[in-house]
Amino acid sequence: MSHPGTDFTPSTYGGGTLPKGVRSRMIHGVNGLDVHLLEAGYESSGRPLALLLHGFPDLAYGWRHLLPLLADAGYHAVAPDQRGFGRTTGWVNDYDTPLAPFSILNMTRDALSLVSALGYRRTAMLVGHDLGSPVASYCALARPDVFPSVVLMSAPFPGPPALPFNTAENPASSVQPNTENQQLTAALAALNPPRTSYMQYLSTREANQDMWHPPQGLHAFLRAFFYVKSADWPGNQPRPLQARTALELAQLPTYYVMELGQTMPQTVAPFHPSDAEVLASHWLTEPELGVYTEEYGRTGFQGALQAYRVFSDPVLTAELRLFSGRTIDVPSLFIGGKSDWATYSAPGALELMKTKATTRMGEIELIDSAGHWIQQEQPVQLSKLLLAFAKEVEAR
């Protein structure tokens, strides 16, 4: 033990794949969690804090290549396993547990509590990737004093859900249930072949077991999943979609709009890379993929999947309406991969982010030769963008 509230997991974390200068550590009592994190630049105090929030099915480990680059630039760079993931404990690993602890606002509290536990009043850099993006967005929305800038990766933030407006004069409009999602689900199911959204599938009771114990084995499933969403897979040629209709969404790869009745392991199995392609995957070697296999083999996916159920929960959506009409007013940046469909998978979200949800967003940055796993595929390019943005924020 170094001092109360922290300890270090054995240096065997990562099976010898952690870059030099990156350590694994546990922080106790963070918003009810014991948080596992990876960090670099911890040797001296007084460094500005860079907080990195991962997405699905990633871990703190996904930032391993970026952490030393930020430490070299003078930061104390910290990447936690988020609630529901990896070695962070204090959450209930069960489909039938209440969803409220996994709400976006409680995960925002997790981030706020971690900053405080680490002895900081504010971050100098906040980055959220994929499911980490909405968490980072609400951090900047709710506590701009603690999170004075934000970088969103892969998942654009369209803004908080709106409250019904001017219903005193039009009472009928306030009682209309929002059936758009049900209509879209029905329209996707009516296509030939019938389809379903990956978000709908990942919200089902079966998804955890499907992915935890797939017929091809967990390692092979994860290899195909990481590959098919990367720039290595030639099928990723993303472009904006015109509207949120079944026909438009059906243009997305099957890992986004799945064939109805197929599991995710069945969906990605045909795209498993060849031995030569695996060998060429310098950003995710077999020993590195082994870390993911070991961690998810231990925990399963349910904790990580709760976030998908949170998005469609009416009570937790209502909670977000506290911020209805609020914009992200701190300097912000969006970074995507040129080969990542996630930038466009929610039609209109990118435009809403630029025009309505934020007031100080810079250019949209798309990184060459990067798919969804930007921080693993192109960490050097990503670090250049992050450091240039941080310098610009500081200058302002």
- Look up the CATH topology of the largest domain: Rossmann fold
| Beta-strand fraction estimate | 5-15%
Average pLDDT metric: 94
Radius of gyration, CA atoms, in whole angstroms: 20 Å
Q: In CATH terms, what is the architecture of the largest domain? A: 3-Layer(aba) Sandwich
Uncertain ranges: none
What would you call the shape?
globular
For the secondary structure, the number of strands is 11
Largest sheet: 9 strands, mixed
The CATH class name of the largest domain reads Alpha Beta
Helix fraction bin: 25-40%
Structural class call reads alpha/beta
Order of the strands making up the biggest sheet: 1-2-3-5-4-6-7-10-11
State the fourth-level CATH superfamily of the largest domain: Alpha/Beta hydrolase fold, catalytic domain
Number of helices: 17
Distance between the termini: 41 Å
Structure summarized in a few sentences:
The chain is built from 17 helices and eleven strands.
Write up this protein.
By secondary structure, the chain is of the alpha/beta class. The protein folds into 2 domains: 6-161 and 317-395, 3-Layer(aba) Sandwich (Rossmann fold), CATH 3.40.50; 178-305, no CATH class. The chain is built from 17 helices and 11 strands. The chain has helices spanning 66-72, 104-117, 132-142, 171-175, 180-189, 198-202, 207-212, 218-228, 246-249, 264-268, 275-280, 286-299, 302-311, 314-320, 349-357, 374-377, 379-395, and strands at 6-7, 23-30, 33-40, 49-53, 76-80, 125-129, 150-153, 195-197, 257-259, 332-337, 361-367. The strands form 2 sheets. Strands 1-2-3-5-4-6-7-10-11 form a 9-stranded mixed sheet, sandwiched between helices. Strands 8-9 form a two-stranded antiparallel ribbon. Helix 2 (104-117) packs across helix 3 (132-142) and helix 8 (218-228) packs across helix 12 (286-299). It is globular, with a radius of gyration of 20 Å. It starts with 5 loop residues before the first strand and ends with a helix. 44% of the residues are buried. The mean pLDDT is 94.
